[in-house]
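Q: Could you predict the 3D structure of ABC transporter ATP-binding protein?
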Amino acid sequence: MTETVDKTEWQVGDAEERRVILSAEDITVRFGTQTVLDGLDLDVYAGEVLGFIGPSGSGKSVLLRTVLGLNRKQGGTISLFGQNIEELDEDERTAIDMAMGVLFQHGALFSSLNVLENIQVPMREYLDLPKKLMNELAMLKIEMVGLPPEAAWKFPDELSGGMVKRAALARALSLDPAIVFLDEPTSGLDPIGAADFDELVRQLSDTLGLTVYMVTHDLDSLFSVCDRIAVLGDKKVRVAGTIEDMLVCEDPWVQSYFNGKRARQIKR
Ligand SMILES: Nc1ncnc2c1ncn2[C@@H]1O[C@H](COP(=O)(O)OP(=O)(O)OP(=O)(O)O)[C@@H](O)[C@H]1O
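A: Sure. Here are the predicted structure tokens for ABC transporter ATP-binding protein:
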């Protein structure tokens, strides 16, 4: 590989440093005649937990897929780890892919593989490691996400919803990424399971210096784990800032979201 991403350089554990790990600039995405994103700008800082919110159908998943290179864009620039992703050769792109982990909505584990094998999928794809070492590494990830060791041998349909999310997170962490993308990670979990998952995300970010980009509808997550929140609306990021910024923001959608009945119950 000609160029690699020095992940340790980005695992800062301190959002104060404000280094931009992901930058989306002037992004436009269209499907046929429908423009979903139009001149969208967003910076994500190394070490922060960013909550990404917006009305249903506003384009949160489209932006995530665009950042991951799974969606075509009609305009704009995406930079990851300081590199414009369109200017990378194959090896450089691979190095960037290896420095990112993704947890898609619903976990998306392979049903025919047990948890250990699911976690090893990225290792098999990108690394050439002896089986014993891969097993040891996967067991470490299982421990890291708070699953019991015996979960390693279970298949996805033998797991609870919360365990599926943790197993999927372990797989996202398989290659020790510097940034993870979580698409609605607590959807479908009961409030206690969701709070436990939030705590885990916060812990991982604090201890590993992991940057977390989290698409969420979960107000508890926004209040408890996110350093910053970005709000998508009218095809752009309308506002981005801390939860305190959101609470005093005059944007009507942000106001109703953060000062609605449910939010008031959480803030109490
Ligand atoms: N591959 C595609 N082809 C055509 N239209 C698409 C495609 N992907 C997304 N869209 C459209 O883009 C818009 C935004 O969708 P997206 O899934 O990003 O919304 P979202 O903000 O993630 O919504 P939710 O919160 O409900 O998950 C929708 O109108 C959707 O129909």
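Q: Anything worth pointing out?
A: The chain has a mean pLDDT of 89.
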